[in-house]
Amino acid sequence: MLAALLVVGTACSPGPSSQPRLALHGCEVAGAAAQCGTFAVPEDRSSGHGRTIRLRVVVVPAASGSALPDPVFWLAGGPGGSAVDDAALARQTLAGVLVDRDLVFVDQRGTGGSNDLRCPAGDDPRSWAGAVRDCLPSLDGDPRAYTTAWGMDDLDDVRAALGYDRINVYGGSYGASAAQVYLERHAAHARSAILAAGTLLDVPVYEQFPATSQRALDQLFARCAADASCAAAFPDPAGDLRALTARLDAGPVQLTDPATGRSGQFTRADLGPGLHGALLDAATAAALPRLLHSAAAGDWSDVLALVAGGQDEPAAEKAGLQMMELTILCSESQERLTRAETDTAGSYLSYDDVRALTVPEDVCRAVPQPPPAALYTPPVPVDVPVLLLNGDADPQDPPDNVAGAQRLFPDSLALTVPYEGHHYAGTPCQAGIFQAFLQHAATGDVDAGCLQESKPPPFLPG
Questions:
Q1: Same-domain pairing of 303 and 433
Q2: Phi, psi angle pair for 8, to nearest 5°
Q3: In terms of residue numbers, what domain contains 253?
Q4: Three-class HEC string of the chain
Q5: Is 0.85 topped by the overall pTM?
Q6: Pair 182, 266 in one domain
Q7: Which whole-number Å values give the CA distances from 76 to 104, 315, 343, 409, 439, in the listed order?
Q8: b/e map of 410-436 (b: 16 or more CB within 10 Å)?
Q9: How many domains would you assign to the chain?
Q10: In a domain, 462, yes or no
Q11: Is-cis flag, bond preceding 79, omega within 30?
């Protein structure tokens, strides 16, 4: 009970619990003066012995030169993103907050500058499982140890080593999941949390993709129908999608990129992931009615923009298969995907489409499973102030995925950002909301009226 009382929002944290023991040196990150260093943690946290991982740590000091004792720790998305690589985005997203609070980045184990384990792989997903099996013996690390739970335990070690007693955590997308794991395991050292474009830990995010992505697409089509110019130019986008699907069911279409002269195929397997990727961003989503209409009419010149403009990186990046990402996608309860639990009825996304957006099943069979000690346990209520923001048109982490957040976070406020998809942050409105919330770690201090002034991006003309 004492721990719970200590983490309820107050004006400021009680101050550092110890002198810093992590040596930092001056550096520059994303154009800002910073302090950089590394910190060693055991790879196997259950034993505390054996191989160690050196974590990359960056602190951007408060602009005022007189920082409050509770910094903001930024948690990257992915899974697999580098927190340090997000520095420019973080400074934009948290503008105002950084006047009197340090901003801390820790590359999670297995990402960025923190022992980023990768297996070489080609472009063909059918070869990835073999690539993983072939490279496991030569990896400089045990992929079973690269989980969210142990990553958040690392984060708390860094907090203590920097001399902070309590911290605020900000996480977007997968970072919002990681932030929840931190709250579950280290609530006594959490002053507050901001969860942006995230899903509650006990909601299986990928199994919901067919329903949530279809919802976003239906919402887009309804907005087009309500817009006079869009409705006139593209009177039946759902019909255009059906015609396009039927065309691709008959076989691939040969395309040539006019910018590069390179040719390739657009197949039925590209359609679902391409649409989902475009829906992630409000601007690329607004281009879809025109793209679908022109392709259905036999003009494929704009379809390349659908593929290039919105689709997320697949699990295999050019640098190879990232083992931290695969371990989490294949092992953790929120991320796992099973055919039996994935309902695709009424959705444009098939189970295979969702697998293409995550990781193939045979790859998961090749990835070693973490021990139970390395995995987080089912969530329980946490008495820490939490602010949640979700885009109303997000195809993968919509507001419904955080419905009832108060059952896990009794002191929480869930806000919906009109018209936005998954990729949003850094507006003056949201920066002001974050600043108001973090000032006293109080959900009651937040005035979110500016969100209602949001305007959707215009549809592309016909």
A1: no
A2: -70, 145
A3: 206-310
A4: CHHHHHHCCCCCCCCCCCCCCCCCEEEEECCEEEEEEEEEEECCCCCCCCCEEEEEEEEECCCCCCCCCCCEEEECCCCCCCCHHHHHHHHHHCCCHHHCCCEEEECCCCCCCCCCCEECCCCCHHHHHHHHHHHHHHCCCCHHHCCHHHHHHHHHHHHHHCCCCCEEEEEECHHHHHHHHHHHHHHHHEEEEEEECCCCCCCCCHHHHHHHHHHHHHHHHHHHHHCHHHHHHCCCHHHHHHHHHHHHHCCCEEEECCCCCCEEEECHHHHHHHHHHHHCCHHHHCCHHHHHHHHHCCCCCCHHHHHHHHCCCCCEECCEEEHHHHHHHHHCCCCCCCCCCCCCCCCCCCHHHHHHHCCCHHHHHHCCCCCHHHCCCCCCCCCCCEEEEEECCCCCCCHHHHCCHHHCCCCEEEEEECCCCCCCCCCHHHHHHHHHHHHHCCHHHCCCHHHHHCCCCCCCCC
A5: yes
A6: no
A7: 12, 16, 29, 21, 23
A8: ebbbbbbbebbbbbbbebeebbbbbbb
A9: 2
A10: no
A11: yes
pLDDT at 319: 77
Residues 78 and 182 in one domain: yes
In this structure, the answer to whether residues 20 and 82 fall within a common structural domain is: yes
Residue 317 domain flag: no
Asked whether residue 397 is assigned to any structural domain, the reply reads yes
Lowest mean pLDDT among 5-14, 101-110, 180-189, 217-226: 5-14
- Give the confidence band of 123 by pLDDT, cuts at 50, 70, 90: confident
148-157, 239-248, 316-325, 416-425: which range is least confident on average?
A: 316-325
* pLDDT tens-digit map of 82-121: 999 999 999 999 988 999 999 999 999 999 999 999 999 9
Domain boundary among 310, 340, 360: 310
- Helices 174-186 and 148-161 pack at an angle, to 10 degrees, of 70
* Domain end position, chosen among 295, 310, 325: 310
> What's CA 85's distance to the chain center, in Å?
14
